[in-house]
């Protein structure tokens, strides 16, 4: 029986970016299905009373040092984005819209945005910068913007976020294997272990 990893994510989380770089390999090696579920981390924080570690200066400094250690371990690029934290509402609506309307382009879309944020350090709070990134990767900015205003897309992101909260999600990344919840990219070893269990 194929196991499924449900990956609740928001582009604005550097820890989520790191998990994103590793999950496809883990799922391939364990013959598991990876399901991406976009959510709005700001909505999760508001509902749960949680906040970004970056809001506490000492914790924020440590977090980025620790994430850098993991990036080196994984062999992936990670650069601190000086615009962090950013409001990801429009970005996550766009991600949700692409997932719903152009699923065949979803992976490429998420790839280009994660790279822009956490490798290139671009300011994706700036519409002109977002448009430039999308153009560079073959996405029509006007079409993507239209998706962010689509009521079905808005509702889907809201529903995903509300479902996440009901399931006990308080931050990102959060992963589920059945009813087992795993929070944080530093728990991927437990995710892999659970997937290997018969």
CATH class: Alpha Beta
Low-confidence stretches: none
CATH superfamily: Glutaredoxin
Q: Which sheet architecture does the biggest sheet show?
A: 4 strands, mixed
Number of domains: 1
Helix/strand-derived category reads alpha+beta
Catalytic activity: 2-hydroxychromene-2-carboxylate = (3E)-4-(2-hydroxyphenyl)-2-oxobut-3-enoate; RX + glutathione = an S-substituted glutathione + a halide anion + H(+)
Keywords: Isomerase, Transferase
InterPro entries: DSBA-like_thioredoxin_dom, GST_Kappa/NadH, HCCAis_GSTk, NahD-like, Thioredoxin-like_sf
Pfam families: DSBA
Concise summary:
With 198 residues, the chain is α+β, with helices and mostly antiparallel strands. 56% of the residues lie in helices and 10% in strands.
């Amino acid at each position: 029986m194929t196991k499924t990893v449900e990956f609740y994510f928001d582009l604005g989380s550097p820890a989520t970016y790191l998990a994103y770089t590793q999950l496809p390999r883990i799922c391939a090696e364990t013959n598991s299905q990876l399901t991406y579920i976009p959510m709005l981390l700001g909505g999760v924080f508001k509902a749960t009373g949680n906040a970004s570690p970056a809001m506490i200066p000492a914790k924020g400094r440590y977090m980025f040092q620790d994430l850098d250690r993991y990036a080196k371990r994984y062999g992936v690029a990670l650069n601190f984005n000086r615009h962090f934290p950013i409001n990801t509402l429009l970005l996550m609506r766009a991600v949700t819209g692409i997932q719903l309307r152009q699923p065949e382009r979803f992976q490429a879309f998420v790839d280009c945005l994660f790279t822009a944020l956490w490798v290139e350090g671009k300011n994706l709070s700036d519409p002109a910068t977002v448009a430039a990134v999308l153009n560079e990767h073959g996405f029509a900015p006007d079409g993507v913007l239209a998706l962010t205003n689509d009521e079905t897309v808005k509702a889907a992101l809201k529903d995903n976020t509300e479902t996440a909260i009901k399931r006990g999600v308080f931050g990102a990344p959060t992963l589920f294997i059945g009813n087992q919840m795993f929070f944080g990219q530093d728990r991927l070893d437990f995710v892999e272990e659970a997937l290997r269990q018969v």
